[in-house]
UniProtKB/TrEMBL annotation:
The keyword Transport applies. InterPro entries: AAA+_ATPase, ABC_transporter-like_ATP-bd, ABC_transporter-like_CS, P-loop_NTPase. Pfam families: ABC_tran. Belongs to the ABC transporter superfamily. It comes from bioreactor metagenome. Gene3D superfamilies: P-loop containing nucleotide triphosphate hydrolases. This is Vitamin B12 import ATP-binding protein BtuD.
Amino acid sequence: MIDVRDVTMTYPSGKGIFDVTFQVGEGQVLGYLGPNGAGKTTTIRCLLGFTKPNLGSCTIGGLDCVARAPQIQKTLGYIPGEIAFLDGMTGTDFLKFMAQMRGMKDLSKQKELIERFELDPRKEIKKFSKGMKQKLGIVTAFMHDPSVLILDEPTSGLDPLMQNRFIELVVEQKKAGKTILMSSHMFEEIERTCDEVIIIKDGTLVEKNDVGALKGSQRKAYIVKFRRPEDIALIVSQKFTVDQVFGNTAEIYVKGEEVGRLMKALSALDIEALDTKAQTLEEVFLNYYAAEGSA
């Protein structure tokens, strides 16, 4: 289990993370969302024991992340946001080195992952493409069958086919009871793998919810086809957010109590068709930040 409690870590610039608390249990994937500089990397550095927080505590499997950092790092599965390798090695050399460091005897999982992600590790790493380095990072993170994984932008540089294979791998690991924290800008993989999502802004957690509830809590989109195109102007005049107008059809966005007000307004007009539009997690995230920024 990953347990972050009341963690504050500040830098001389004033940036950092402030009073951050969350837990990730067995068989759970937690999505960690936020723009660059929001505090995701600082949180991960605290979990890896690279940075000691000013206040609060981080534990993995009951072990303190600073005091027991070497032990945690040896068993943890980790994909960094910026993958760096020793360029003088081949991929095979690096995998052998990591297997020896972890005391691995059974390399069957490593072999299965190499085949799954179609990685040829025999080349020198300095000749690897971005995608090949990412595949090598994935194999390294998963090959020792870790119980806890921290994944920072894990599919960066992968093509859609390999992205899908990675998503399938994470879902399998979740079913096997693994504990996974995943930071990603790929909203589709968050939607398909995560049970809950936390959103961080300026170092502070501003939202924590399951994916479905988070999508449902934000604004809703209605696609309305009017018999009279001029009725769209009437809806705009009533301070509703109208977007994507095509002839006599408009997308209307509402939130919370506005739904009832919109339905009342539409009931007084001649409507040919009414449908809802499901929002993606990316739209929810962008809408949330837009709302926070204008508050």
